[in-house]
Specification:
Layout lengths: L1 E9 L3 H12 L4 E4 L12 E5 L1 H5 L10 E4 L3 E4 L6 E4 L4 E5 H14 L3 E3 L2 E8 L12 E8 L2 E12 L12 H6 L8 E11 L2 H10 L7 E5 L7 E6 L5 E9 L7 H11 L3 E13 L5 H6 L3 H9 L1 E3 L2 H4 L10 H27 L1
Parallel strand pairs: 1-2, 1-11, 2-8, 5-13, 11-17
Antiparallel strand pairs: 3-7, 4-7, 5-6, 9-10, 10-11, 12-15, 12-16, 13-14, 14-15
This protein binds flavin-adenine dinucleotide (FAD).
């Protein structure tokens, strides 16, 4: 099947859906391709998001059930639990990313975005005219398989918002060379689960032991050294608990899932999993290459190839903690502005002629 669009976005997570909306609201025909089925794309766990990040992304603040809790007291403990710092007021909101992704999807559809689910085998569709010079080939859309049918979508711009998969980036020589995959010590292996509290008395005893109250967060900092964390947030009504674990994924520390198993073993009052998931989060500082991208030939290479990467996995610009909202959505907004500006000047130039 052959079809065309102004923009193809690969990935229906936070970054992809926001980029799609920004571009569609500016009058572009946008198609999003997602490999998972509807209702399963993007992050499927909870993120701590600072309140102003929603405003900066141009989104209304979350409400329940997307908003699960708002900035309670956080107790930061040393691994042995003997040293403790308590933060009494935190600006961080506990957001259910499943609901945020659904909100972004509804918004995208409202802006006229078409989303194709269960899409496999996405690969860039190159401009045949310059096939002889592989590094100069321009991306002119994508090829993919959708429900067993090969689709060929011609597009002016392809946005790779596929997370660490980098499905388009890795197949475009100029982008692959400029943004190699993030590995090992530059990754955090993380898991976030929401669990039943099977034994409320056990939860009360745990909180009392740490001088905490229902609704507080108890976090052990650096249980496996460096960047690692184990954290338990018991809900105010003692009905459920939200757990977060993470560590550097260099093979020398326990992974997020191993730290999670350890936490659950040590706290038998915790019960079955309600939802959640895990993955790896890029941590590395802004690569020098990206900093120079603003003014360098790489930007031109990206621009020429008409494929920019919007997802968090590429740049990981955040400094201390990653953001499931700010970086994906801010980059998506700048992408829309960057992409639309030349089009506008092209349109006005053409009309003058
Ligand atoms: C356990 C854990 C806890 C976290 N906690 C926080 C937190 O507290 N605060 C915070 O700000 N951030 C947190 N993060 C990070 C945050 O969740 C991510 O930064 C955010 O989800 C990234 O969004 P994205 O849209 O860039 O990518 P993703 O959410 O990964 O979306 C990418 C989409 O692309 C799709 N895709 C991939 N490959 C293909 C392909 N070949 N073809 C088509 N589609 C494809 C995927 O199925 C997915 O739907 C956490 C991450 C983890 C793992």
């Amino acid at each position: 099947m052959r079809r065309s669009a102004d923009v193809v976005v690969v990935g229906a997570g936070t970054a992809g859906l926001h980029a799609a909306t920004c571009l569609a609201e500016s009058g572009r025909r946008v198609v999003v391709l997602e490999r998972r089925p509807e209702g399963h794309s993007g992050a499927r766990w909870c993120n701590g998001i600072v309140a102003w990040q929603f405003e900066r992304a141009g989104l209304a603040p979350p409400v329940a059930p997307e908003l699960r809790a708002r900035g309670g007291v956080t107790h930061l403990l040393s691994p042995s639990g003997t040293t403790r710092v308590s933060i009494t007021s935190s600006p961080v909101l506990d957001a259910d990313m499943r609901a945020l992704v659904q909100r972004l999807l509804d918004r995208a559809r409202g802006a006229g975005v078409e989303v194709l689910w269960d899409v496999t085998d996405v690969r860039p569709r190159f401009d045949d005219a310059v096939e002889a010079v592989p590094t100069d080939r321009r991306v002119r859309g994508v090829h993919a398989t959708w429900h067993g049918e090969v689709i060929d979508i011609a597009a002016d711009l392809v946005v790779d918002a596929s997370g660490r998969a980098g499905v388009v980036r890795d197949a475009v020589p100029a982008l692959a060379a400029a943004a190699p995959p993030v590995e090992g010590a530059d990754l955090c292996s993380a898991q976030q689960l929401v669990l039943d509290v099977d034994d409320p008395d056990g939860a009360r005893a745990f909180l009392a032991e740490h001088g905490a109250r229902p609704g507080d967060i108890v976090s052990w900092m650096a249980p496996d050294g460096g960047f690692s964390i184990q954290s338990i947030h018991v809900a105010g009504d003692l009905d459920e608990a939200s757990l977060l674990t993470g560590s550097i994924a260099d093979g020398r520390h326990r992974s997020g899932s191993e730290l999670m198993a350890d936490l659950r073993r040590r706290h038998p009052w915790l019960g079955a999993q309600r939802f959640g998931g895990g993955g790896t989060i890029p941590l590395r500082r802004t690569p020098a290459r990206w900093r120079s991208l603003r003014s360098s030939s790489l930007r031109m290479a990206s621009w020429r190839s008409r494929s920019l990467r919007s997802s968090s996995a590429w740049m990981a610009l955040w400094k201390r903690s990653s953001s499931g909202l700010t970086m994906p959505t801010r980059r998506s907004t700048s992408l829309a502005i960057t992409f639309l500006a030349p089009l506008r000047s092209f349109v006005s130039d053409s009309s003058r002629r």
